Amino acid sequence: MLFPAAKRAETVAAVLEQLSRVMRRLATTGGLGLTAASVLTRLDLDGPQRLTDLAASEGVSQPSMTQLVSRLEREDLVQRAPSPEDGRVVIVTVTGAGRNLVAERRLERAAALEALLNELDLDEQAAISRALPAFARLADLANVPAVSGRADRPRPGGVR
């Protein structure tokens, strides 16, 4: 079913917000809050990051990110080190324990999601499978920074 553009975006946004809340509830291992889980996942997927970049990407202040990273460091989930290029800059890296926790949460989420998917009928499961490439493309579009030739393209809500 196709909607007019404004209604389509509104409907997709509402459903994705609801799914986002569901996905957050599906993984509880480690007792991490949303920002802590997001930081660990970002470090696991994207590699070491500057503390300031983590704060910006998560939409929190640098002092808040410093507190969070300190807590994650005490729990041996991340480690901080000065940048080799500029000792004033702090680089944050996920530890083996942090990687393991991210993997455990991913498996926990996948198992819970599998149980939910099994509750759908075959047509609904097929519709989700057919929609996955479009959702992956949408995520890719939202993650492309505004660079050469695309600077005129607005980045919604600070999406990087």
Automatic annotation (TrEMBL):
Which InterPro entries does the record match to this protein?
HTH-type_Bedaq_tolerance (IPR052526), HTH_MarR-typ (IPR000835), WH-like_DNA-bd_sf (IPR036388), WH_DNA-bd_sf (IPR036390)
Q: Which SUPFAM superfamilies match?
A: Winged helix' DNA-binding domain
Query: Signal peptide position in this chain?
Result: none
Residue ranges constituting the HTH marR-type domain according to the UniProt record: 1-137
User: Would you say which domain of life the source belongs to?
Assistant: Bacteria
Q: What is this protein called?
A: MarR family transcriptional regulator
Which organism does this sequence originate in? Answer: Nocardioides cremeus
